[in-house]
């Protein structure tokens, strides 16, 4: 018997999740738009140190969904996890506002920075995997509308990401370091709107295909759960402030993230309850997660090296007005919002003709387009002296190409995990998918730190795995080589992966 959600349109719950995620992403991307500039201009850190902090923060943001997914599946349920995460993220943004308000007391400003980042990281772990998982729960198993639902959901993400650099960057990235606090305060308000709207409307709209409420608590929260949350918060605060406290160069956050990238998939794949077909499909998730690392480590330069590049070496004048460097981070979401409906129509048109590419092939195209974006910017800086600023249109072209690549990879990946994952592992495997993003973001910070031309103008050479980087052209060539090889390998493997998916596309 067909269920109530098999009507032609999408369930109303999708639009509540769209709105909730839109404001949460407004909060996150608004903060991210000014974060590296705040570190280097207000806290006076070097590009290298700022990039490493950026990588550690964004890496841990994608690591904690493992904790959130685990507690959600066994105790909290999606709804309670989203509430806990949302409240913590609002507090985290407020602590960043306090940090930016305390620049006259550097020690206090830095302590508040670590505290704000810590609470943001843990809160995101509860929020991020659970709201993504709920999208899939709105639909009957095997409903093809899930792909288009994730694309619509992804447009909500990008709508929030489009407005946030304009608002938070417009308020905070003014050239006056005292103004960064207003950007963080705007991000805090966005998070509060997200939590309130979700709490007011969740009981009315969040229902599964059988009409039953989805995301309800599994068990009552107990002292053990509270201890895990508090312990995780203290651990992350320690990890973030470790280098500063002990004046050490040991990258324990990197060891943690890369170690988890190996350990967690090993634990899941060796679970004895998995059938042969389930294990084969989970292997597909893990293999594609490996390629996703190369995509996002290059893509996430947007908030790190590409923002520094926009600030220092891009001509940003439009008439007499100089556009803030943070505004460039609105280009990607605007392109996604504009192009996403076209991509949906293209996939639908191909599907009707039995020519729609399977998920692995779509993701290979995403990597190829990312590589092409770096080809464009490498051509722009080739042979150009570092003192000469290039036209902003080269950077705009890179972001548009990256946006099309993102549409081939990111919503397709989220949908694929929801379809391939056994129900009992759904949140944990979504958390594992975000774990690949954790590794990628940490790696992105490491790569961003290689950008030549420090604050002293020395332009000292750096190297990566024997590859010497003495100028911006060589810096961007590193990304071309990395993403180009990854795209070629995924094209070759896509046929094998499709067979391993056992009929799921």
Explain the overall architecture.
This protein is mostly helical and 505 residues long. It has one domain (11-500): Growth Hormone, Chain: A. Helix content is 73%, strand content 3%. It contains 15 helices and six strands. The chain has helices spanning 12-42, 47-63, 65-100, 106-137, 145-172, 180-205, 223-246, 252-269, 276-299, 305-313, 331-352, 359-381, 392-420, 426-448, 472-500; strands spanning 314-315, 317-318, 321-322, 390-391, 462-464, 467-469. The chain has a two-stranded parallel sheet with strand order 1-4. A two-stranded antiparallel sheet has the order 2-3. It has a two-stranded antiparallel ribbon with strand order 5-6. Strand 2 (317-318) and strand 3 form a beta hairpin. It is globular, with a radius of gyration of 22 Å.
CATH fold naming: Growth Hormone, Chain: A
Main sheet record: 2 strands, parallel
Class by alpha and beta content: mainly alpha
Number of helices: 15
What portion of residues is helical? Answer: over 70%
Q: What is the mean predicted local confidence, pLDDT?
A: 88
Order of helices and strands: HHHHHHHHHHEEEHHEHHEEH
Low-confidence stretches: 1-6, 455-459
